[in-house]
Amino acid sequence: MHLSKEQERILSGEKGQAIQKCMEILVGLGDIYDADSLIPIKSAHISGISIRTSGEAGLNFIEKMENMGAEVSVPSTINPAGLDLQNWKELGVPEKISKKQIRMVEAYKKIGARPICSCVPYLTSNRPSYGDHLAWSESSAIVFANSVLGAKTNREGAPSALASAITGLTPYYGYHKDENRWGTLEIEPDIDLFSKDDTFSYSVLGYWIGREFPESVPIVKNLKPTMEQHKALGAGMAASGAVALYHIPKVTAEAEKNPEICKADETVEFGSDEHEDVVSSLDQTSEYDLVCIGCPHASVNELKTVMEKAGGKETWVCLPREFKRRINSQLDENNLKLVCDTCMVVAPLSEMGYESIGVNSTKAAHYAPSLAGVKVHLASVEELVK
Ligand code: F3S
Fold first, then answer.
1. pLDDT given at position 331
2. Is 153 exposed, middle or buried (0-12, 13-18, 19+ CB in 10 A)?
3. Which of 122, 153, 333, 366 could link 134 by a cystine bridge, Cβ 3.0 to 4.6 Å?
4. Which residue, judged by its Cα, is nearest atom 5 of ligand 1?
5. What are the strands, taking DSSP E only, across the chain?
6. CA distances from 257 to 168, 249, 253 (A)
7. Does the C-beta of 140 come closer than 6 Å to ligand 1?
8. Helix (H, G, I), strand (E, B), or coil: what is residue 76?
């Protein structure tokens, strides 16, 4: 890989140990993927913040970076942590988990990352523009940034996103290159399955696409999703597969500018059999102790929908803290809790005494059994909260 003189100096350790380590990570990655250079990025989004998923090793790594003087050089945000940083006691999170988690978030703050602790950075202070190169590591945010906003990022892991946050650079390969962003397969969904104001079928469709065509750039036809439905569709495909980008003719950012990228030789249909198959493969129980909405983190509109439909069942709506402030924290009542900084997958639900949860997100249904240690019931919001 070609490096500039300045990049060579960083790699040799002239600019300090922390940034040298980051440069080593990026050069190693670039070599694996045959990148010929490093390019500047506009922002980074870093995952692996939950102490439950990244463990002691993750905490030691970021504290070591902080001690070596690491500092982000581009706007950088962080993913959900393992607990609500302000309300963890009230929610029943064990103290031994909270101490390490708070240390972890503090270390990220000290290196200059914005502690939004949310997987929807694009709805908060980190919203990319069309054509921006990014280094993001949260699969649902990556697919939204690439598809809906027309920004350009690969599916980074937590270490490479952190390395990019500090250097401001990423290897030039994959979805940074226009030639890798063309649609590869057309999907024809049965539009009768898609209600105007619900995200559930979008989440199911996304999961089916990722499961059946994990390396594709799907072209989804006949749909015009809302922002929330885009969020659900992309998160589903990025959870079951390695999908990082989709197009919808005349709707998504690049498809609007260049309709030519929405042509492929193969077309597959998605109907009620496929819908049913996904739901039955993820649904484990009809009983559930807690309803969890907000995977990816909920928008204000999604919160309002839950409030309208809620019937008194214990419910968490996971959302960015900024939205909770905007709304009014008194909504923490009637068994409806606004949970910030974390989510139903990375919070220690089993240690908090929950055995099963109801979710409307295929991504949450995919990960919660193994990561949060609970069984899941998968259904629409309406069915879950009534
Ligand atoms: Fe976000 Fe947690 Fe889902 S990080 S995408 S709410 S698994």
1. 61
2. buried
3. 153
4. 296
5. 38-40, 43-46, 76-78, 134-136, 169-171, 185-189, 218-220, 267-270, 290-293, 315-318, 336-339, 356-359, 375-378
6. 28, 10, 7
7. yes
8. strand
Query: Is the CB of 296 inside a 6 Å radius of any atom of ligand 1?
Result: yes
Q: Per DSSP, what are the bridge partners of residue 337?
A: 316
Ligand 1 centroid distance, CA of 295 (Å): 5
The span from the CA of 291 to the CA of 357, in Å, is 6
Kindly report the protein residue whose alpha carbon is nearest to atom 3 of ligand 1.
295
Q: Pick the atom of ligand 1 nearest to 346's CA.
A: 2
Alpha carbons 196 and 83: distance in angstroms, whole number: 33
CA nearest neighbour of 27 among 5, 9, 2: 2
pTM strictly above 0.85: yes
Quick one: which atom of ligand 1 is closest to the CA of 139?
Answer: 5
Whether 318 is in the pocket of ligand 1, judged by its Cβ within 6 Å, is: yes
Residue nearest to atom 6 of ligand 1 (CA): 295
Could you report the per-residue pLDDT of 365-376, keeping only the tens digit for each? 999 999 999 999
pLDDT of residue 43: 98
Buried b (16+ CB within 10 A) or exposed e, 175-184: bbeeeebbbe
Q: Is 336 in the pocket of ligand 1 (CB under 6 A)?
A: no
Residue 148 to residue 218: CA distance in whole angstroms:
13
**From the CB of residue 313, how many other CB atoms can be counted at a distance below 10 Å?**
15
Pocket perturbation via mutation, ligand 1, pick of 49, 77, 237, 345 by most ligand atoms within 8 A of CB:
345
Q: What is the mean pLDDT of the chain?
A: 95
d(CA 130, CA 292): 32
Return the percent helix, strand and coil in the chain, to nearest 5.
45, 15, 40
Q: Tell me the residue type at 57.
A: A
Tell me the CA–centroid distance for residue 10 and ligand 1, in Å.
Answer: 34
Q: Could you tell me the CA-to-CA distances from 44 to 34, 87, 344 in Å, in that order?
A: 22, 27, 24
C-alpha 226 – ligand 1 centre gap (Å): 19
HSE, CB side, 13 Å, CA atoms: give it for residue 75: 13
Which residue is closest in CA terms to ligand 1's atom 7? 345
Ligand 1 centroid–CA 9 distance in Å is 38
Instruction: Please state the rounded mean pLDDT for residues 30-55.
Output: 96
Measuring CA to CA, how many Å separate 304 from each of 95, 226, 309, 327, 381?
32, 15, 9, 10, 12
